[in-house]
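Hey team,

Filing this mostly as a record. A colleague (T.K.) asked me to run one chain through the structure pipeline before their review meeting, and I want the input and output archived in the tracker in case anyone asks later how it was produced. No errors, nothing strange. Just documentation.

Input sequence:
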Amino acid sequence: MKLKLLGAFAAVALLGACANHATTANGAGASAATAGPAPGSEQDLVANVGDRVFYAFNKSMLTSSDQATLDRQAGWLAKYPQVQVLLAGNCDDRGTEEYNLALGQRRANAARQYLMAKGVAAARIKTISYGKSRPVALGDNEQAWSQNRNAITSVQGSNPQGN
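Output structure:
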């Protein structure tokens, strides 16, 4: 009984090894393992460009570092003209809900205006403010608050005409 079981495992291992060798021999396995995110996808944006910019406390002005991120986003959007994005403005948990919704909208609008100035069509960019309702970091300290004061760009779909 044990011999039959060992024989079955050996056969499966040999078949697996043959299948793996055939896949890498024709190159399909090698490219699939190193392909990375699909071009023009949200994963591509996050991995290769960066999907967020950060703001100072109670501010909606872009720093030079934020502008560099948005410059990369504008270049990426130029490369994928069919992609539409959503810019979500966020705040830390201090302040009233009303104040943070307005501040989050100013942050999303600041990033949108910058992308439009770099040539991205307004119709491709939607904005929303989540105020303090969608924190990315938990905690009542400066480290968490600084991560939550952001505008996050997410891929919302694509327009087949590229408009």
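Quick notes for T.K.: Helices lie at 2-25, 28-34, 42-48, 64-79, 97-117, 142-148. Confidence is low (pLDDT under 50) at residues 5-27.
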